[in-house]
Write a structure and sequence with these properties.
Number of domains: 2
Distance between the termini: 55 Å
CATH topology of the largest domain: hpI Integrase, Chain A
CATH superfamily of the largest domain: Intergrase catalytic core
Shape: elongated
Number of helices: 10
CATH class of the largest domain: Mainly Alpha
Structural class: mainly alpha
Helix content: 40-55%
Strand order of the largest sheet: 1-2-3
CATH architecture of the largest domain: Orthogonal Bundle
Radius of gyration: 23 Å
């Protein structure tokens, strides 16, 4: 029997962040997947997670785990597939370290993802967009920042993590306003922005603290914005 502990440690601490260059959010998501999986496996095998063995994580257990998180945690098909992808990635990693589990790994890799319908995303009308952009109080520093963030999010179609992670060096206002974004999967893209968006960014830069932080948008303490900070209302 092969202890799973050293392999999952190497996967989460070396394989993902160092060898694959996975983002912090991806590493956290994968770690949470295995937290749930090992909790499920330890309950089934009546051992602590540290005593689990690779041979105990077989295809039957994985399929039962996926059914469990759908039934008891109300996980949708998309989340279920993300958990399965993390497990498959780990099994491909372990194949090279423990060749004796190749057949077991193949059975797990053969588990299909669940199909699901992509809901149609409703777009905002011009009036709705203008109402949102006009909501921040431009008499305050946070209001100027929020309008710039919202306008840039609309203009460039950015995810929240892309917006909060945008660097000062990624913004070009002359001669053509553009932003350089590091997106999901560490894919970089350069996007043009509207003149009014550029004007809102200039207004923010005029009141932005002289912080050493490389990110464009800062919170009230002069620190980089976070996803949580983006959602929370200003004090």
């Amino acid at each position: 029997m092969t202890s799973i502990a050293p392999h999952i440690t190497a996967f989460l601490r070396e394989r993902l962040p160092l060898q694959r260059g996975a983002s912090h959010h991806t590493c956290e998501s994968y770690a949470y997947t295995f937290q749930l999986l090992f909790e499920f496996a330890s309950n089934r095998h009546k051992v602590t997670p540290s005593k689990l063995h690779l041979e105990q994580i077989d295809a039957v257990l994985v399929m039962d785990f996926l059914a469990h998180i759908e039934a008891t945690r109300d996980n949708c098909a998309r989340t279920r597939n993300a958990r399965l992808a993390a497990i498959k990635s780990f099994m491909r990693f372990v194949e090279h370290r423990v060749p004796s589990i190749l057949e077991q790994s193949l059975r797990i890799l053969a588990i299909p993802s669940k199909k699901f319908d992509m809901p149609l995303i409703r777009y905002l009308s011009i009036a709705e967009m203008e109402a949102i952009l006009n909501a921040p109080d431009l008499r305050t520093r946070s209001g100027i920042r929020d309008r710039a963030m919202l306008h840039l999010g609309f203009a460039a179609g950015l995810r929240v993590s892309e917006l909060t992670g945008l660097l000062l060096t990624g913004v070009t206002l002359q001669p053509t306003p553009t932003v350089c974004v590091m997106g999901k999967g560490r894919k970089q893209r350069s996007l043009p922005i509207w003149k009014q968006t550029a004007a809102d960014i200039r207004a923010w830069l005029a009141v932005r603290d002289q912080s050493p932080a490389p990110e464009l948008f800062l919170n009230a303490c002069g620190k980089p914005m976070t996803r949580v900070g983006f959602y929370l209302p200003a004090p």
